[in-house]
Amino acid sequence: MVHVTMTVNGRQASAEVDPRTLLVQFLRDNLRLTGTHVGCDTSQCGACVVHVDGEAIKSCTTLAVTCNGAQVTTIEGLAQGGKLHPMQQAFQDNHGLQCGFCTPGMIMAAVDLVNREGPNLDEAAIRHGLDGNICRCTGYHNIVKSVAQGAREMAALPKAAE
Ligand code: FES
Ligand code: FES
After folding, report:
1. Is the CB of 99 within 6 Å of ligand 2?
2. N or C: which end of the chain has fewer CB within 10 A?
3. Residue 103 maps to a domain
């Protein structure tokens, strides 16, 4: 067993874990943050995307120990002060989800995309930026609309939005 400690959604979290423990297992099993999903386990679907030190990563293929000392944000950490993050609100406003299984990963990937590329994203840029995320319900049309709105509204906010 190894000791791992990281800051998750602004709170320190520590545990003794098997060295093989994946970040998604640490988040879901140790911290009960079950908003991060596992859809494939092979780094293809994006359901497990979280932010580590401000960048989107697939937590199903990241060892928890490699995040020792890191700042981790999950879908549960996006809303602030009881208010949805603009990207979450945009998915709600545009019906950017059907079953919702892919949604946490889509939103985390979309926030990262806007942080990297800025808010002026056309449809092609959004589709390209989210090509590591699969929606099995195939709701891509409304997902793209959601990300476009979320990007615009993130631009109107102070940089603290994450
Ligand atoms: Fe991580 Fe599918 S569960 S990419
Ligand atoms: Fe069902 Fe995307 S909404 S998998």
Report:
1. yes
2. N
3. yes
